[in-house]
Amino acid sequence: MKLIKTVPLLSILPLLFFSSVGLAHGVSSDDAAFLETVTGFSFFPYLYLGAKHMFTGYDHLLFLAGVIFFLYRMKDVALYVSLFAIGHSLTLLLGVLGGIRADAYIVDAIIGLSVVYKGFENIGGFKRLGIHINTKAAVFLFGLAHGFGLSTKLQDLALTQEGLIPNMISFNIGVELGQLAALAFILLAFQFWRQHESFMKGAVATNLVIMTAGFMLFGYQLTGYFTA
């Protein structure tokens, strides 16, 4: 009971998503049907769907939560989130507009590993192994993977070429706005939690849960790759 009291609700939220682990980066059937019927430039619908994707993309949120877990200064938060956003935007736009394709299962498996990586780093795993990783570079590179993951899903849809470039830019703006909104909520939760001694007591357990979610996503996607 004592352990349960020291770990806030935030640490068990990833468990709520395990039953839908395969939906990471996915586009719902209703949204897909809408996107395939849109013709021409549609700023607000694409903006909305981009923001919606971020709020339902729990793999994004788990990774970002891990990234900012021990960041106390806003300039550090801004730096790391910007690196992730730049990487995410580049591959999302280049993937769809440039027709750069990759196996969706492999990309999402890498995204799962990104979640594992951040949780493992947060509990000091790499330091214990004597491994030094440039965190800024890692966040940027994994940002590329996260953006590429969504682009593979969008490329499977029959999107009209009319207005595709501005529509994808609108979608990406929505993703980044949704990311900022979700990040604000996560930061507020962390700020509240950090005022209590349970933060340090529950930090390891929380990051182990984050790692578990990443491993499950990784395993699910690999299973899909070998059985599809």
List the helices and strands and how they pair.
Blueprint: H1 2-6, H2 29-37, H3 43-56, H4 58-68, H5 74-98, H6 104-122, H7 125-128, H8 135-155, H9 164-194, H10 198-227
Helix pairs in contact: 3-9, 4-6, 4-9, 4-10, 5-8, 5-9, 6-8, 6-10
Give the tags:
74% helix, mainly alpha, disordered N terminus, 10 helices, 228 residues
Please explain how this structure is put together:
- The chain is mostly helical and 228 residues long.
- The protein has one domain.
- It is 74% helix and 0% strand.
- The protein has 10 helices and no strands.
- It has helices at residues 2-6, 29-37, 43-56, 58-68, 74-98, 104-122, 125-128, 135-155, 164-194, 198-227.
- It starts with a helix and ends with a helix.
| Overall tally of structural domains | 1
Pick out the low-confidence regions: 1-23
Strands, count: 0
Residue share in helix? over 70%
Secondary-structure-based class equals mainly alpha
Rg, rounded, reads 18 Å
Mean pLDDT: 86
Reading the helices and strands in chain order gives HHHHHHHHHH
What share of the residues does DSSP label as strand, in percent? Answer: under 5%
Q: Could you provide a short overview of the structure?
A:
By secondary structure, the protein is an all-alpha fold. The chain is built from ten helices and no strands.
